[in-house]
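Q: For a teaching session next week I want to show students how multiple molecules come together into a single three-dimensional assembly. I've collected the sequence lines for a complex. Could you give me the predicted structure tokens for the whole thing so I can convert them for display?
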Amino acid sequence: MRPGPLFALPVAVFLAVGFAMPILIVAWYSLMAPRTFDLTTVFTLANYRAAFTEGYGQPFFWSLGLAALTTLTCLLIAWPTAKVLHAHAGRVATIATALVALPIFVSESVRLFGLSLFLMPGGGIFAGSMRALFGVSIGTILNTKFAVYLGMVYIHLPFMLFPVLLGVALIPPDRVEAARDLGAGRWQVLREIELPLALPGLVIGSLLTFVLCIGANAEAAILGGRAITVVTTAIEQRFNYAQDWPMGAALTMLMIAVTAAVVFPALARVDLNRLIRR
Amino acid sequence: MPDTGADAPPALSLSGLSRSFGDTRALDDVSLDIREGEFFTVVGPSGSGKTTLLRILAGLDRPTAGTLHLRGRDIAGLPPNKRPTAMVFQSLALFDHRSVGENVAFALKMRGVGAEARRTKALELLDLVRLPRDYHDRPVTQCSGGERQRVALARALASDPEILFFDEPLSALDYRLRKTLEVELRDLQKRTGRTFVYITHSLEEAMVMSDRIGIMRDGRLVQVGDPATIYGRPRDRFVARFMGEVNVFEIAGGRLPAFDAPAPAQDGWLIVRPEALAPDAGDVQFDATVTDIYRLGSRVQMHLDTAAGTLIAELPASTRLAEGDAARFGFAVADTHRVAE
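A: Of course. Below is the structure for the complete assembly, covering every listed component.
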């Protein structure tokens, strides 16, 4: 018996209650007058106007820019790593993969505080060791934009690596040999054969990383000091300190729109079935 | 036309080529000259090292010892993309994410040939391998087995290689298609005048196509010769058995103990082809009972129960012998071949 539409009921109910309803409510709030707490039928676009005129450009820019930069960095690190792990599949690769996966099981905040301890000036683990062992006093990158970027890459690399590993596994070795035999250099093999064949994995990994990065704020809060305000922090501030729910809701809707504008065109380009079927 | 004069260097010259994987010697001291414009086939059972040999010739693997010269030029250190050779893979290794035309013109694109020139050349190659021109823009995944074969061939030819390598490309096809493509491949080799190096485990395939055949066993090249020589004068029992079903009799003290008849040599083995056995013929005769008959079209093969064990005979289909018949069979010593080992 083929599973009928009834089989989709549990997930449909869950998505309706847990996903569609909250979004609908947030969308509704975003159209209310600033600093109000009632859902009425008096709609206004004042919050959206404010989003574009009252200095929210910076947080959006940082969130999107950091997300794009982190995604690209993770992709550049994950590709050669995945190639090595795939080529030397066996005990060592399994252990290496497990080591990469392990941090996922530790709370993100714990890891970020760990990194923060490591980077602390003077008495931090890195600087302290350098002074104790070599008598070298060094500065710190803590509380800079670079520290935030480092933390973002550190946290999100596994989410890129595993899909890329799946993608690399989609490349049959004989196609690479055939391309080499037909005169392709290493870069040509990469461009003409490896990247197109691994594309589903690359796209999934990039989307996962990008979307997680847009929503990330712990890195900026723990490692960045006040160097950067990301958009999620800005939204949180609207809801909490400022008690301006409609403004926060409008920023949220804009975030969702931007994310959707990135995700859907990318998803349309890949054949997800290829990743699952093989 | 390539220079095929007597003093022209061989198309490929292999000397002492060896390849070890750990303790295993996959290729053991292979020396061979492949002539310009010849169809050379390497035949051997699986694991005999023939694929390793071809991969080294194509540059996909490195020999652990030995030298390799192409028209007198040392190419042992060249990566595959720098060698003027092309290979048709056993798996074909077509680029499924590209169209037929893009597959065929891949080598040209790698050399920076423009799109228009690539298309022209690809269409010519489709003609050459007898594929319709409108296949150019089709996804390669929509082609049948035989068509994919032709695409792979056209793709290899596109790089205008001095030598073409074939790694059992026909092994996955059904019998009829294989036969058709064998003849076409031979024909294509004659028309283009190129050097083809082909590997297969099927001696039948090798006989149809090749100018010369090399037989491989356990990483060694045990015999090289034209098909008639390999078939008629195998070097040893291994080659003889590999060429098809044969009857082998031990020679001891100048006699054939199996029939108590004189032998043409002091020792060794006598190879008797099934077609050399006939009823009431030859100078060595013996009593036999027909146990099984297999019809092969114009000929029949029969298993004979004799004092020397089960023998195989091949007769014209017109024979009146039936299963269970007893008859006197024999062979002429002149139609046999003696090997030392």
